[in-house]
Amino acid sequence: MNNDNLDLVIVGGGLAGMVAGVRAAERGLRTAVLEKGADVRYPCNTRWSGGIIHVAYTDPKEPEVALRAAIERNTRGFTDPVLMDAMAHETARVIDWLRAQGGRFIRAGAVAWQNWMMAPPRPLRAGLDWEGRGPDVMLRLLADRLRGSGGTLMLGTVARTLMMHDGSCIGVEAEQASVVRRFTARSVVLADGGFQADFALLRQHIMQIPEQVKQRGAATGVGDGLRMAREAGAAVTALDCFYGHLLCRDAMVSDRVWPYPELDGIAAAGIIVNPVGARIVDEGMGGIHMANMIARSSTPLTATLVCDTTIWEGPGRSARIPANPELARAGGTIHRAGTLADLALSAGIDPDGLSRTVAAYNAAHRSGLLAALAPPRSSDRYQPMPITSAPFIAIPVCAGITYTMGGIRIDGDARVLREDGSAIPGLYAAGATTGGIEGGPFIGYVGGLSKAAVFGFRAAEHAASTLRGTLR
Ligand SMILES: Cc1cc2nc3c(=O)[nH]c(=O)nc-3n(C[C@H](O)[C@H](O)[C@H](O)COP(=O)(O)OP(=O)(O)OC[C@H]3O[C@@H](n4cnc5c(N)ncnc54)[C@H](O)[C@@H]3O)c2cc1C
Questions:
Q1: Are 394 and 311 in contact (CB under 8 A)?
Q2: How many C-alpha atoms does 254 have within 13 Å on its Cβ side?
Q3: Tally of CB atoms within 10 A around 388
Q4: What's this model's pTM, rounded to 2 decimal places?
């Protein structure tokens, strides 16, 4: 395909970019997806993901009103209502569209939010395991569909600058093997996946020491789309939160214990302490929140999860890929002791501090005064459990960052907006490079794959409708 005079150029070949590409090509647009990865199995968060499409932990096939309520609940009202409506309305339709492309899904577990997992599923064990699993298969399928519809996936192509004319986007300048090429197009979609792997941006907006936070993903999102959009006059949302999980601290040096198991469920039942034995977060806010709080601290690699045998045998076994027994199988560090004092000595925590903290926590649990602790312990989302049954357990933890929640401001059609709310003609953004639906003071999570698929689809639909009648 000639690189000039394309209808749609898309930056990034994750789910957002590939859905946009296939849908646009299917609608007759001359389409190219530029992907910086050079290999056909180029890394990206989509390919490495768990593959479950959900909307704020709700089955996307639930009625729209239920999906809106779930988004409201999870973000505590932070979400842009226009984006929320798009998610509630479109996610189920995009799943059907993916199935019509040949995409396969299975029901992953007993809980309804896991009803739409890309097939085949990954095995339920610790570590990174993506090859031949549902998301990898889905991306390869979409690449085939793109080619089949006359579109092009250009690997080894790094988008650098948007081409602008009179305030409209008219293409992208990109680098292929150190050669600069210009792709002129009537519209461009930015779908580069976020800025989680750019330490300067992370330092500026989220955390002090990104080197001490585990990249819990492909680390391909370095903020190129955000930078290009800003240069083109785009508004950005708050950039201060990320989606991620609590991991065993060994993940900093061992690939055997990430991206799974996540330790969120155990931590939300037990406590997280620092080396002097004091609690440092509201564990009741859940793992994504805890990961953000630990990442923001000045000492991210000093937090330890403390629980007891009842928690270890309960919430410890209940995750899809459970810490108990997967963490031990993968060789992750787990301290066990018959007394809290011995546990503290083994885990490098001040014994008196830990005993005081656990005593105060257990007393507050008994008397229903957890909210009066410092920091307060909320109990409306996750059930706190007392720490009383030996052996006691301590796991050194770290924060894992998967993707940034804030980013380019868009409307419900994925059009990139300026500060004054007007759309930049010819410019769209989709997926983890965008903001407005997730984050906020409570760090609400809505779903990375649903966000990518919905706004990739919406971008293509809008571009196709706008260009209809003017296509060559
Ligand atoms: C381990 C793990 C488990 C997950 N599980 C789930 C789950 O079960 N459910 C869920 O909803 N979400 C999950 N997520 C999150 C989800 O995968 C992401 O939010 C989603 O895939 C983002 O899609 P995207 O297309 O926006 O970005 P990506 O998939 O990251 O794709 C972006 C692409 O852009 C390319 N790119 C970047 N810069 C440039 C440039 N300058 N030029 C050209 N190309 C560029 C990158 O190489 C990459 O291929 C998980 C993520 C991980 C890592």
A1: no
A2: 16
A3: 13
A4: 0.97
**Rounded percentage of the chain residues whose pLDDT exceeds 70:** 98
Predicted local distance difference test score (pLDDT) of residue 110: 82
Residue closest via CA to ligand 1's atom 26 equals 431
**CA nearest neighbour of 26 among 113, 92, 88, 98:** 98
Structure tokens at 20: 């946009």
Choices 3.40.50.1820, 1.20.1530.20, 3.50.50.60, 3.10.310.10: CATH for 6-239+405-467 = 3.50.50.60
Q: Which protein residue's CA is at the shortest distance from atom 1 of ligand 1?
A: 49
Residues lower than pLDDT 50 in the chain:
471-472
Expressed in angstroms and rounded, the spacing between residue 446 Cα and the centre of ligand 1 is: 15
Q: What is the pLDDT of residue 472?
A: 44
